[in-house]
């Protein structure tokens, strides 16, 4: 499989070199898929990606991602997008508590244009039931080594109907700080939209607030997002952060880097037990 993937990456790079011409220098731009590249011709620099999110043009028009310059379809069916290269940096984890992060995410979640477009592309809504089914695609350990995984799944299953919320929005679904880019003019962008889905906004908010914003700052952060903190939102975010944490552990494999995973298992156990003191200790 690795040799096949390497062959695909090399072939895709050659296609792009033929598309751009010999004056352009092409380099991979990180990531494991091999679908992102930077291209330079003198002072000109582009960010190229194969098979980007279909609504990249709308994201560009609303200033959520760097400006889309052109789109081309290759003979093999791949679609190549070229965006303006941003001379900037990824946000540090502590910077996600800034009001401008909350304001941009709030604008995304309130965009009816993005929502209407994604509904036409992505027909399945990521409801709690759908997310529970997604967990079942992973292999739970059969020897009961980590009973907290089963306890967390039972927690989610028992509460799925109580947290159902039909105010669906476009969720980015990967609030990792590395996806937030700030350019030299202090412009902020949220990139990597390949996993976007229609879902409860708490799917995004749960990670951003639980993992990046101190709890005493949640009310102020949500004011910049333009939402009041209430018990219903807290309950939904709690359900989704348990889901995110369980999904992350299962995706990594319970036996991979066991010391690191054990930290996350303790964090998950504290979330399920709803012990704020233990959760805060582990987050620190």
From TrEMBL:
Q: Which residues form the Aminoglycoside phosphotransferase domain?
A: 55-237
Q: What are the UniProt keywords, alphabetically?
A: Transferase
Q: Which GO terms describe its molecular function?
A: transferase activity
Which Gene3D superfamilies does the entry link to?
3.90.1200.10
Q: Which domain of life is it from?
A: Bacteria
Matching entries from Pfam families are given as: APH
Q: What is this protein called?
A: Phosphotransferase
- What organism does the record attribute this protein to? Salicibibacter kimchii
């Amino acid at each position: 499989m690795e040799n096949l993937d390497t062959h695909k990456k090399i072939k895709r790079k050659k296609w792009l070199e033929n598309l751009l011409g010999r004056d352009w220098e092409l380099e991979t731009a990180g990531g494991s898929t091999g679908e992102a590249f930077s291209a330079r011709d003198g002072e000109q620099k582009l960010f190229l990606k194969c098979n980007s999110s279909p609504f990249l043009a709308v994201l560009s028009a609303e200033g959520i991602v760097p400006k889309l310059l052109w789109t081309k379809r290759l003979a093999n069916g791949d679609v190549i997008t070229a965006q303006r290269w941003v001379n900037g940096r990824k946000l540090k984890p502590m910077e996600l508590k800034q009001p401008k992060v909350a304001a941009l995410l709030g604008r995304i979640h309130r965009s009816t244009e993005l929502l209407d477009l994604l509904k036409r592309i992505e027909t399945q809504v990521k409801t709690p039931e759908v997310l529970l089914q997604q967990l079942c695609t992973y292999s739970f350990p059969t020897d009961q080594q980590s009973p907290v995984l089963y306890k967390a799944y039972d927690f989610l299953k028992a509460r799925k109907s109580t947290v159902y919320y039909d105010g669906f929005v476009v969720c980015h679904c990967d609030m990792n700080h590395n996806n937030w880019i700030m350019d030299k003019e202090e412009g902020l962008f949220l990139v990597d939209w390949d996993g976007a889905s229609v879902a409860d906004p708490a799917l995004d908010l749960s990670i951003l607030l639980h993992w990046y914003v101190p709890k005493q700052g949640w009310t102020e952060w949500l004011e910049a997002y333009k939402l009041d903190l209430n018990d219903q939102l807290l309950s939904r975010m709690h359900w989704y952060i348990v889901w995110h944490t369980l999904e992350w552990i299962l995706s990594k494999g319970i036996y991979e880097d066991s010391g690191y995973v054990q930290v996350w298992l303790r964090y998950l156990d504290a979330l399920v037990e709803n012990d704020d003191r233990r959760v805060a200790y582990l987050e620190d």
